[in-house]
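In the previous chapter we treated chains in isolation. Here, by contrast, the input contains two separate entities that must be folded as one system, with a combined length of 1064 residues.
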Amino acid sequence: MSDLLAPYEPGRDGPFGLEEAAHLLRRAAFGAPLVQVREWQALGPGECIRRLFLDEEGEEASALDRTADALSELNQLRMIQALWLMRMKVSKCPALEKLALFWHNHFATSHVKVQSAELLWRQYRLLRSKGQGSFEVLLQEISRDPAMLIWLDSNSNRSTHPNENYARELMELFSLGVGSYSERDVQEAARAFTGWHERGGEFRFNERVHDFGEKQIFGRQGDFDGDDVVRMCVGHPACARFLAKKLLQFYVEPDPGSDLVEDLAQCLRDLGFDLSMVLKCLLQSKAFFSERARRSIVKSPVDLCIGAVQTLELSADFKALADRTRELGQSLFAPPSVKGWDGQRRWISSHSLLLRQRFAAAVSWESEGLSSLPWKRWSAADSQDSRARVAELILEVQQGGLKEDCRSRLTEFTEQNQGMGEEAVLRSLTQLLLALPEYQLC
Amino acid sequence: MNRLASRSTGRRGCASLRLLGASALALAMAPFLTAALGRFPLFGRQDLVIPEQARELLPEGVIAYAQADGLGSIAQTFSESALWRRIGAMESYRRYQKSPQYLQLTAGIAFAQVVAGRPLEGALGWLMGRSICIGLIEREGFSEPGLALVVETDDEATAEEVIQALQRLEKLDEKRKMRRATHRGVEVLVLDSKLQVCRIQRYLLASNDPDLVRAMIARACGEGASFAGSALAQAFDTGRPTNAIVSAIVDSSYLTRKSGKDRWLPEKLDNAGGSLLVHDLLEAAARSSQLKVHLAAAGNELTIEMPIDCSPGELPKAFACFAHDQALSSSLPLLKGDEFLLSISEWRDLPAFFRDRRELLIEDAERGFAEFDSGLAVFFGGRVLSEEVIPELCEDYLFVGARQTFEGRNVPPKARFPAGAWIFRMKNADRWNGELVAAFNTLIGVINADRGQKKQTPLLFFSESYRGTTIYGARFLPDDDRPTDLGRYNFSPALARVGDRFILSTADELLRDVVDQLVDGAVETLPPGTLTFLRAQGEPTLQILTDNRDALIAQSMLDKGKSLEQATLELDVLLDIVREVAGIDLWSRISGDRFVVSAAVRLKPLEVVAPAAALPSQEISR
């Protein structure tokens, strides 16, 4: 086993400075304003991670939950998209929101077919509440989730005519990956899930249409039901590797090496697939803080938008923000398919790049539902020197990770445009920073 | 030595002479020099001409003018009133006073607390003085008019106190740098590089344009033409109610000067709803020479009235759809149930509106009509709506909105909408009875087909007799075992006929209430000439806002990015305000040869509060 997952020791393995703290907050959550990054920098990685996963909901998030029930009743997709985005902002534990986003892509379920904002909101709450616990429990709960049952046609899965949709996706997309199971396994697993129906927005076990007979799955024989299938999938050697790779691609780097995948897979097995403990291990590791990992993941539209709102402490019209993430290619609660969003380079196209630049303009000039850019606070800073002024703004917006030639060009821009007035210069600089290729990377 | 002494004496003597000569020359030149600098008029400062009325200080070129008299004493009286005490006792108001939004809102008055040490109630009276005059003045080279303000305070000392308070602001806030300028011996404070403020005797002058301030100072010197002598000022005084607290007037030609989207009073509108609501009033306003508005208060009622000097006969033929002739010859009914949160009555000739819509609406709106025509034809067995159905409608319409109680529902919805009912007459009610029922059935069928595709609960038809009428309706089964999609219980559409009136409601509960009103004749008759009447009632509005409090707070958070604290506070303030309002009436009518738009806000009766029950002092020590 390599030492890639060994804990990152500040001092010995490298610093835990502003860049490292910002990297952690960006990846584990959605970023944070500079003042918070500086506070956390002093805490060290262990304490930062402990705080990230403290499941203490603030009053605002709790209030949103109370009203979400009423609002989701209205069956408006845009409403629940806005609710979740707002929750990402106001939650006291944004790391759990980020993890819920990971699971939302993993167990991709779309409003297009489910047609119930209420059920999808309930699914989100399931992912949020169970997402950091046991993966096996999560998989069992999601197998009973009404939105998932509708999405994968479970109501038509009957003993006389089994529907393989859920069984196939359970193995291919949720737990094992392609090549780790046979067609026979899928067919037999489908029999185990017969009678797992949705009715009136609730899970119902319809035993009249359940197949109680013997099944053979992964070479084992028994009168298995759905929970047994889940248990066998989680116990399959491929599951840990499959899940490890997905976690690494989401949190660390887009193309993790096989050593690292195997190390994390082993970690998953050793820790009983307890996601909270696994993530804490991962986010404190040398691999996470390595050069290779930094600024290597393309920000998803949600990361981009909520990241800007968090980092720059903006006020936002969250419905407009939901429209924006949708335009950029990530419509929450409506992924393009059961595979979810491909992400990474797929987030970037000639069209989406223009939209990202438009977003940069909207943030900088406080339009399209975004406001409260703190340019006055920036202008109050003492630095009169253009270079120092640019450096401060880079810290505020980018929080490190910008090459010298880029800094020089920004400084040059500042010097050449002093006549625009201080406000215009600061806003223009912000826009340039937000439009940079470097800013599109997490 | 003598020679030396005499030479030195001589030099000193020459020097003294030179000094004396120079001084004399300087003294002689001084007036010319200072005049050249423009600081003082030639030969010393001219006496100011103190006007009798504040508005005499406004220069000519005013396109809009507002005047408030006695606001200071009104504010003082209000601050001692039971209503103010009640407001001050509101929990939400006390929380609101601590919020940043309150400070921003009252910044102009808050400075009085901070720098002048006056309590808020006293500060209002202090600032508003005897009268306030505001003028918008056209300026060459500017697309927007400039703002000029004159406040007549009680006396010179009070006005000076305000100036001193402004100057003290500078010391409190380093960023609030003030410049000072002088014009004709009058010191002008320039705040935030925008607002110019100065004092002339008991008058405070302010403007966002230095040229306007100079013009007002010139007026004080008796120079230049004054607004007071203009036609607009005369029109302002003509017919002004004696009990008006605030009045305003605007030159209509300014509102119609520009074209296209920049025109304040558009010729054509882009949506049918807006056009049907107010288009005749907008057109009348554009044809009048001025627009006036008066605000008055009496007892528990606040009234606003806007006369528009244009008769219905002056409007183009396309405006016949506003049924002015019918309004003058007949009376509109108004449904007046206490449980209704909203009741609207109006005269509109919809067939004429459809016929003449292209005169009233922009071209883009035509698509909506085509969709409407073809879409609704489905419900009428393929009839062409605009040719066969719309022309059968009579000109009077009623609309009511009410809170729903969801009686009989096992599980009421969490999001609770008000119900709405539209009451209309058909020219041949007997003939259309069956057709409308069939159209209603078709509507329910289409809704059910759509819901079936989405695997949602369908509506179930019913018909029942009620007070001599037959109600045709559809409801979601109350004992349905689907715990989701509870929002559907907000809707139970229903149709009924009482006499020649048809009622189409979103909820059968409301439909029964309307049937009760019509059968019992519990209907108010509005005076002839009434075109549109809207009544909103405070208590039902308060109830519905309270029903949906959490959802409204969340909406505010979502839409505007407000924090929970802010959103909650704002809603609670709104609820407390609505709690004090008995109702609001809004109506338009034809009176003589003009239109009049009026609004009345009725507050709930206030109990007498003993003086001893005063609030804790809000005074801040200097």
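Chain A touches chain B through 36 residues (CB under 8 Å). DSSP finds 24 helices and six strands in chain A. Compare these points with the single-chain example from earlier in the chapter.
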